[in-house]
From TrEMBL:
<dbReference type="Pfam" id="PF02815">
    <property type="entry name" value="MIR"/>
</dbReference>
<feature type="domain" description="MIR">
    <location>
        <begin position="176"/>
        <end position="230"/>
    </location>
</feature>
<dbReference type="InterPro" id="IPR016093">
    <property type="entry name" value="MIR_motif"/>
</dbReference>
<protein>
    <recommendedName>
        <fullName>MIR domain-containing protein</fullName>
    </recommendedName>
</protein>
<keyword id="KW-0677">Repeat</keyword>
<dbReference type="InterPro" id="IPR036300">
    <property type="entry name" value="MIR_dom_sf"/>
</dbReference>
<keyword id="KW-0732">Signal</keyword>
<feature type="domain" description="MIR">
    <location>
        <begin position="118"/>
        <end position="173"/>
    </location>
</feature>
<feature type="domain" description="MIR">
    <location>
        <begin position="21"/>
        <end position="75"/>
    </location>
</feature>
Length: 239
């Protein structure tokens, strides 16, 4: 993992006013925003009461939610230390505000690829998203989702436990070749073919007021997402 100065990463801590050309690379820590409803992809240590009983995934309406960060790194333990430093230096916030955010996610490639920290992510790439707070993987399978009866989306596994149920194909809308912060994307689950999806149906019990996140096999307006808040690691030159 690059142990260089935080200034280069700080320059890539993208804001809404400077997101047009910001590349999403492996190692990026981000929130995913649902285009239609503006919720952030979220997880927390609350299991589903039906289906798989695995850790639930929802859509959270508050931008400042501390459980909505996901990461795309190759070396998580090192990354946590470095992100703590970068956030404090570049954004003047405490690590507790971000590092243990339940929407923080890590973007990783599958373990059998040659992708490196800082590599750009091309259209069609298979990726994994790791929930920063709980270290579990964004996952799906054939269990029915609690509200709509679509494909359940959960968080499952851990650092040493991952399978193809954690694999998602990145599909960029439009003519983009690599994933950038301002681009509309879909994530299609490899095993089930379902697109990561949300809608305005809300939970009353396990996560009151939060939206259901599920998988659907049809391409719809409700399964488009964008990379939102986060720390966007700079591109690493190939050697």
């Amino acid at each position: 993992f690059d142990q260089g100065s935080p200034s280069s990463a700080s320059a890539s801590a993208a804001s809404s006013s400077s997101s047009q050309n910001v590349q999403v690379t492996y190692g990026t820590v981000l929130k995913l925003m649902h285009e239609k409803t503006k919720i952030r992809l979220h997880s927390h240590e609350v299991p589903y009461g039906s289906g798989s009983g695995q850790q639930s995934v929802t859509g959270f309406p508050n931008v400042d939610d501390s459980n909505s960060y996901w990461v795309l790194p190759l070396y998580l333990a090192c990354l946590i230390f470095r992100i703590n430093f970068w956030f404090n230096d570049a954004m003047s916030v405490s690590s507790s505000d971000y590092i243990w955010d339940y929407a923080l996610q890590i973007v990783r490639p599958p373990p059998d690829t040659s992708a490196k920290q800082g590599d750009t992510i091309p259209d069609g790439a298979i990726i994994r998203l790791q929930h920063m707070r709980t270290r579990k993987w964004l996952h799906s399978h054939l269990h029915a989702s609690p509200i709509s009866g679509n494909l359940e989306v959960s968080c499952f596994g851990g650092e040493s436990e991952s399978d193809t149920g954690d694999y998602w194909r990145l599909l960029i809308e439009g003519s983009g070749k690599t994933w950038k912060q301002d681009q509309r994307i879909r994530l299609q689950h490899i095993d089930t073919g379902g697109y990561l999806h949300s809608h305005d149906k809300k939970y009353a019990r396990i996560a009151g007021g939060q939206q259901e996140v599920c998988g659907v096999r049809e391409k719809r307006a409700d399964n488009v997402w964008l990379a939102a808040e986060g720390v966007y690691l700079p591109i690493t030159e190939s050697k």
